[in-house]
Amino acid sequence: xxxxxxxxxxxxxxxxxxxxxxxxxxxxxxxxxxxxxxxxxxxxxxxxxxxxxxxxxxxxxxxxxxxxxxxxxxxxxxxxxxxxxxxxxxxxxxxxxxxxxxxxxxxxxxxxxxxxxxxxxxxxxxxxxxxxxxxxxxxxxxxxxxxxxxxxxxxxxxxxxxxxxxxxxxxxxxxxxxxxxxxxxxxxxxxxxxxxxxxxxxxxxxxxxxxxxxxxxxxxx
Length: 221
Fold this sequence. Notes:
The chain is mostly helical. The chain has helices spanning 3-14, 28-35, 41-66, 84-116, 122-145, 150-155, 175-220, and strands at 71-74, 80-81, 162-164. The radius of gyration is 33 Å and the shape is elongated.
């Protein structure tokens, strides 16, 4: 065997095929791009949870800023009294929470529809849970901002001091309004989508009938 033939034989033995682009092992960057793909369900869920918590925190700050807490007046004998007007302010705390919850819930419902409208029935679950979680976050923010420990503040108060009550929600069922607000836009958009699908189907059937009639006329002519 000649030296040239031997070199060719050796070259053929050690030749390593090179993978073509788009085949074989994908580049390492593809996996990272897949994780950051906005169409990924995990990314959308993470974004929705972040919006839920953020809106809950902002709503808690607004709730705390708007509410005027009723106060108890300390007496000489160590007892505390509250006026009828102050008693009405207790209900205003829950009422403001409900109004804020309805508005924030609608926003969360719109966000849920935008992110999960192709999921089907789980969309309603996502919107409902998001509304409840945001309402819980708002409630927690109100408690954190305070005031708290009413009993301790009354004990340490002087005669004639006005001691505000604890900042808290007195009706747990008010959280349901947040879920209701979140489900309203979902139901509306779902109904509108069904009507649009029905109109498109009717238009398609009309076009099919028109084509068949035209074909029949041509054949008969």
